[in-house]
């Protein structure tokens, strides 16, 4: 009798584990799509990936809404030549994903070359089966 009860529990746990993996894979792809759209200055992709309520925080404490974030990338005011992400972690809580990673980038903001090394927190919300960037905050690496 105990084995009969154990079987549905195991099946439920496996199903939950699979759902987590599927969402994590979708968020991983959304992060990659965002990275690529930022490098390419792809307005349509940036708008599709960003929630209308986006709060985008820079390491210098500047805050942008969706329109400003997209506009600055597309215009070249914030120009990413190359973005590398490392040390990424993803935590799914319901329809919310918390993503942390290190961002190393080559920039050409307003025609001025530079580099950045940042720790980034992304918050993604799942609506209608799509993961959209709801919030982002970057901080500079602490001085040691």
Written overview of the protein:
The chain has 144 residues and is of the alpha+beta class. 39% of the residues lie in helices and 45% in strands. A six-stranded mixed β-sheet has the order 2-1-6-5-4-3. Helix 1 packs antiparallel against helix 2. The chain starts with a helix and ends with a strand. 18% of the residues are buried. The model is unreliable at 9-14 (pLDDT under 50).
List keywords for this structure.
6 strands, 144 residues, globular, 3 helices, six-stranded mixed β-sheet, alpha+beta
Secondary structure: elements and pairs:
Elements: H1 2-40, H2 43-49, E1 50-57, E2 63-64, H3 66-75, E3 80-93, E4 96-109, E5 112-127, E6 130-140
Helix pairs in contact: 1-2
Main β-sheet, spatial strand arrangement: 2-1-6-5-4-3
Distance between the termini: 60 Å
Helix content: 25-40%
What percentage of amino acids are in beta strands? over 45%
DSSP summary, beta strand count? 6
Average pLDDT number: 90
Biggest beta sheet summary: 6 strands, mixed
> Which consecutive residue ranges, at least 5 long each, have pLDDT under 50?
9-14
Gist of the model:
With 144 residues, the protein is α+β, with helices and mostly antiparallel strands.
């Amino acid at each position: 009798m105990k084995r009969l009860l154990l079987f549905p529990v195991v099946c439920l746990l496996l199903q939950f584990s699979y759902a987590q993996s599927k969402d994590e894979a979708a968020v991983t792809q959304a992060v990659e799509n965002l990275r690529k759209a930022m490098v390419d200055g792809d307005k349509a992709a940036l708008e599709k990936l960003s929630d209308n309520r986006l709060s985008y925080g820079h390491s210098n404490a500047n805050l942008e809404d969706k329109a400003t974030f997209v506009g600055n990338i597309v215009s070249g005011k914030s120009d990413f030549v190359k973005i590398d992400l490392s040390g990424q972690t993803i935590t799914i809580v319901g329809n919310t994903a918390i993503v942390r990673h290190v961002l190393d980038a080559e920039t050409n903001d307003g025609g001025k070359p530079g580099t950045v090394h940042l720790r980034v927190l992304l918050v993604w919300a799942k609506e209608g089966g799509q993961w959209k960037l709801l919030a982002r905050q970057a901080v500079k690496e602490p001085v040691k």
